[in-house]
Description:
Elements: E1 10-12, E2 18-22, E3 25-29, H1 47-61, H2 78-92, H3 100-126
Antiparallel strand pairs: 1-2, 2-3
Amino acid sequence: YDGHSDLHVGxxxxxxxxxxxxxxxxxxxxxxxxxxxSIPLVQPDMWELLQHWDKLxxxxxxxxxxxxxRYEEQQHNCFTFALAxxxxxxxxxxxxxxxKAQFTESFLLPHTREASRYLTLHQQLAHTDVYIVxxxxxxx
Length: 140
């Protein structure tokens, strides 16, 4: 990622299948997201929510709002899909919905900043005469 293009956003079910929305509608992808930034949305102690997550996500993805003809690049896109699902879950837990700005600030920016620092370091190391050797198990 070069930092100049838009990122694509999706939500995973408990099996790692990524639900994502674009101009062709909702997709369910079991692969192709290996180079993604994974952002946890649910705390591990929320086991009751985790038990229903897959069903909630599947039902949500089938709603009319996510039909292909409703896609609009700036206002009704993959980000809208992810945020709407998060807000649906929050609503079910009697919590206030997040705005785009709140969602971005709370969930996306901290992780993308960290990834950006890592990628910058990786690119700098890749263009220098540095060789990285993993530590032997006993040295770790």
